[in-house]
Amino acid sequence: PFRVEHPAGGYKKLFETVEELSSPVTAHVTGRVPTWLRGSLLRCGPGLFEVGAEPFYHLFDGQALLHKFDFKEGHVTYHRRFVRTDAYVRAMTEKRIVITEFGTYAYPDPCKNIFSRFFSYFKGVEVTDNALVNVYPIGEDYYACTETNFITRINPETLETIKQVDLCKYISVNGATAHPHIENDGTVYNIGNCFGKNFALAYNIIRIPPLQADKEDPINKSEVVVQFPCSDRFKPSYVHSFGLTANYIVFVETPVKINLFKFLSSWSLWGANYMDCFESNETMGVWLHVAEKKKGRLLNIKYRTSAFNLFHHINTYEDNGFLIVDLCTWKGFEFVYNYLYLANLRANWDEVKRQAEKAPQPEARRYVLPLTIDKANTGKNLVTLPYTTATATLRSDETIWLEPEVIFSGPRHAFEFPQINYKKYCGKPYTYTYGLGLNHFVPDKLCKLNVKTKETWVWQEPDSYPSEPIFVSHPDALEEDDGVVLSIVISPGVGPKPAYLLILSAKDMSEVARAEVEVNIPVTFHGLFKRA
After folding, report:
1. pTM higher than 0.85, yes or no?
2. Is residue 178 within 8 Å of 150, Cβ to Cβ?
3. What is the largest CA-CA distance in the chain?
4. Which of 135, 261, 356, 519 is most buried by its number of CB atoms within 10 A?
5. Beta carbons within 10 angstroms of residue 516's beta carbon
6. Cβ burial 221-243 (10 Å sphere, 16+ → b, else e)
7. Backbone angles phi, psi at 429, to 5 degrees
8. Residue 279: φ, ψ to 5°
9. Which residues are annotated as a binding site for Fe cation?
10. What is the DSSP letter of 381?
11. Which residues take part in binding Fe cation (predicted)?
12. Distance (Å, rounded) from C-alpha 151 to C-alpha 209?
């Protein structure tokens, strides 16, 4: 499956500005949409890649566009609206980039005089609220988010923006990831950097309870469950997601660090953005931390392994005194986001390939963490599970050195944006994961992976660029993979219609139906299926 080339460069359409829709449009269905599939696929991504003549430079800078495919009685409609964040509204009002984004510095207002500009140097950074990464529920409400302290409540029916929420007002975190865990009762867990004891940096796990009978906004009842220490008191690691089981929380601390001295200095003095504040620690490797979820107690076990970048946990589960931690890793300490500038992603195919060859190599891995340690076993592998080749070796300094079992690997071919049958199998032993196949960072296939046997199933068509696959379980499912997989695909230059919603059988990744639309759809990162 690793032969496909993209000389026509159709993937560039993923990074093109589009207009929002004033009302939903009907999609043209081929095949048959299962009648049991009722509800909405909601997804987020960038939709505006420049403001007037000012370009955004990084994949994570474009202004947030919220997409919705509605499924009802075999019919499909598509709708999209820009999220009315402060960043978007002010850009529209002033016709320039006003808020500094992840990789784009917003220049001071040219209309202001030298005095007011001088004073704005001391105001500190206005943190972006550009909610382009994911959408998730808290209680009965839905929020679009990025990775800062701001989340944006949206209406999942109309896609209208309701209000901005500042998490700092409710809980002690400087930000939160776009990958909360949501338990079946509606409890939300997330992780964020914070200032810990005596000014040292730390990471807080926060819990937002489900909606109670009093109907009060659950965010008002947020609490910190546990605090993970930081390997460097001045330089927190970048954290994108974490692992959760019935009894444990797993936090993987990678060598991609945020330099707080740079982050807190006045960006306007040196024209900086968020990307400028990252650096790599070339010697620490990766540290893994485990806490007991219910007691909020850290396990005093120091897990160590060699350097990788980590964005997405696949799943985590407990087995016989071990934690199995499945991850989509990128080998090495150089920050993968360095390769996600739009100029790189929009380059011609040969140049795209040339860039990706220098980047960290992707690999899906299984790590196994022993939860009880007997000092008598120093120097030995502590993993006794029969089905894995992953090891955990107790060293004389009482650290535990981990070596992974590789569950998917192909040169410059990533299994990324992993999804599982989340409702039934999150935090539990499982067999299947669905992912987006990145070919030199270009998304060109959908992949199902059996994590036990490593068997794969692939959907791929020439010059077609899919999004993260979302698994939707059949209402009467008996097996883990009874259901469908949903993905938004763009196929510029293939047929008359530039994009479609693809429905695959989750069993064998064969096509069930597609619903074509007459408009291009730019890249989306994450989302969910909301049942009707």
Report:
1. yes
2. no
3. 71
4. 135
5. 20
6. bbeebbbbebbbeebbbbbbbbb
7. -55, 135
8. -150, 165
9. 179, 240, 312, 526
10. B
11. 179, 240, 312, 526
12. 17
pLDDT in tens, 242-301: 999 999 999 999 999 999 889 888 787 788 999 999 999 999 999 999 999 999 999 999
Where residue 263 falls (left for φ over 0; alpha for ψ -120 to 50; beta otherwise) is alpha
Q: Tell me the one-letter amino acid at 246.
A: A
Of the candidates 66, 151, 52, 69, which has an alpha carbon nearest to the alpha carbon of residue 107? 52
Contact status, residue 255 vs residue 280, Cβ threshold 8 Å: yes
- The position carrying tokens 């935090």 is 427
Give dist(CA 230, CA 197) in Å, integer: 11
If phi over 0 gives left and psi between -120 and 50 gives alpha, with beta otherwise, what is residue 509? left
CA distance 402 to 393: 6
β-bridge mates for residue 127, sequence order: none
139: left (phi over 0), alpha (psi -120 to 50) or beta: left
Rounded Cα distance between 117 and 121, Å, is 7
Model confidence pLDDT, tens digit, residues 318-355: 999 999 999 999 999 999 999 999 999 999 999 999 99
Using left for φ > 0, alpha for ψ between -120 and 50, and beta otherwise, residue 421 falls in beta
CB 448 within 8 A of CB 467: no
Sequence length of the chain is 532
Question: Around Cβ 460, how many Cβ atoms within 10 Å?
Answer: 16
Separation of alpha carbons 487 and 440, rounded Å:
20
How far are the Cα atoms of 16, 63, 167, 231, 320 from residue 150, in angstroms, in the given order?
A: 26, 15, 6, 26, 40
Residue 326, token pair as written in the block = 């499945």
Neighbours of 269 (CB within 10 A): 8
SS3 track for 301-343? CEEEECCEEEEEEEEEEEECCEEEEEEEEEECCCCHHHHCEHH
Cβ(506)–Cβ(471) under 8 Å?
Answer: yes
For strands 405-408 and 432-439, give the pairing: unpaired
Specify binding-site residues: 179, 240, 312, 526
3-state secondary structure of 178: coil
Q: Coil, helix or strand for 150?
A: strand
